[in-house]
Structure formats: structure tokens, C-alpha cells
TrEMBL record:
Pfam family, one: SLBB_2
GO MF assignments: polysaccharide transmembrane transporter activity; porin activity
Annotated compartments: Cell outer membrane
Entry-linked PANTHER family: POLYSACCHARIDE EXPORT PROTEIN GFCE-RELATED
Entries under Gene3D superfamilies matching the protein: Outer membrane lipoprotein wza domain like, wza like domain
Domain SLBB: 112-168
Membership in a protein family: Belongs to the BexD/CtrA/VexA family.
Protein name in UniProt: Polysaccharide biosynthesis protein
This protein's UniProt keywords: Cell outer membrane, Ion transport, Lipoprotein, Membrane, Palmitate, Polysaccharide transport, Porin, Signal, Sugar transport, Transmembrane, Transmembrane beta strand, Transport
Membrane topology: Multi-pass membrane protein
Residues in Polysaccharide export protein N-terminal domain copies: 32-106
Record organism: Sphingomonas pokkalii
Signal peptide: 1-20
Length: 185
């Protein structure tokens, strides 16, 4: 009997290894689409190849610009990173550097804001793929008076907030203001 149990144990132990399935690799980090428009408080890394003194990390200032040595201010607000990189390239090529190569990466996005019936309303850092429910969780959840059917979202650059049905897939964008309303009963 002991021998039988030993054989069964060994078969189960090694059988589990033989039939184990490979774990799928982690999903790649999702980046914001190429058409993301820069705004105030976005932090970017600008690389001018073979020119370390011009490369570095820059913040889009309150005027919506990035200040660089040699070429001065470059308007960034409302433009894509590739558009800004092309303007920097053109300005550097205009008498400063022959055939410059410029790339821009967004390091951190402008924050989003959550207001209303959450436990800790305020400003929070944006991360790619953020949903309204993630934002509520970051603000430590709904208050006891929170309405949980609709949410009000004011997108960056828009004047009016939109009333949106609260769903798990509702995405937040950098600079959004989310307001959780009060329920009536």
C-alpha cells in the first residue's frame, strides 16, 4: 500500500509539471496614442542626438511652451509630440545644427482631478489606461452620499462637463475633471 501511494504521489507531482501550461507574458505597458496632445504640466524628455547639452527633461510651462537653449520657446500645448519634435528639428537646422535628429517622449502626463462625492477629492497623477472607477478608487472610494449611476466629466480644453453613465470601461484622459454627484435617496 505504501508503495502504491508513493507511485501515485510521484505521478501527480511530475504529471503536474508535464501538463503545466506556460504563463502568458505580461501585457505590454499601454502608452497613450500617438495623437496625444501635450498640455500644461506635461513632462517630456527631448533627445537631440549627439547633442547632450540640448537634450533633457522639460516641463510644458503655464504658457503652454517648452523653453530650450539656442532656439528659445517652442509652443507645445495642443500639439502632438511628433509635431513639436519636427518644429525643434527645423529650428535647430536653421543655422545651429546640420541635419539634427530629435525625439520626444512623454514622461508624465498632466494630472486629473476628481471632485464631489468621493472620500478624498483632489488632484491625482494620470497613468495610461486609467478608468473612472480607478480614479474613484484612488480617491479612496465613493462617499456614502455618492450617486453611482452617472459621472460628470469635463475634458481638458472643453467648457462644459458631460454626464456619462458610470461603466467600468469609461476612460479618463490627462487633464480631465471628474465630478461624482450626490444621490437623492
Amino acid at each position: 500500500m505504501k508503495r502504491f501511494l508513493t507511485v501515485v504521489f510521484l505521478l501527480l507531482s511530475f504529471g503536474g509539471v508535464a501538463f503545466a501550461q506556460e504563463v502568458a507574458p505580461a501585457a505590454p505597458v499601454v502608452s497613450v496614442e500617438q495623437d496625444y496632445h501635450l498640455g500644461v504640466a506635461d513632462k517630456v524628455r527631448i533627445l537631440v542626438y549627439d547633442e547632450p547639452t540640448l537634450s533633457g527633461e522639460f516641463l510644458v510651462n503655464a504658457n503652454g511652451s517648452i523653453s530650450m537653449s539656442l532656439i528659445g520657446d517652442v509652443r507645445a500645448q495642443g500639439r502632438t509630440a511628433s509635431d513639436v519634435a519636427e518644429e525643434i528639428r527645423a529650428k535647430l537646422a536653421d543655422g545651429y545644427i546640420r541635419a539634427p535628429k530629435v525625439s520626444i517622449d512623454v514622461l508624465s502626463f498632466r494630472p486629473y482631478y476628481i471632485l464631489g462625492e468621493v472620500k478624498k477629492p483632489g488632484q491625482y497623477p494620470y497613468s495610461s489606461g486609467l478608468t473612472v472607477l480607478n480614479a474613484v478608487a484612488t480617491a479612496e472610494g465613493f462617499s456614502y452620499r455618492a450617486g453611482r449611476k452617472f459621472v460628470y466629466v469635463k475634458r481638458a480644453g472643453e467648457l462644459k462637463e458631460q454626464k456619462i453613465r458610470l461603466e467600468a470601461s469609461t476612460l479618463v484622459s490627462p487633464g480631465d475633471t471628474i465630478r461624482i454627484g450626490e444621490r437623492f435617496f
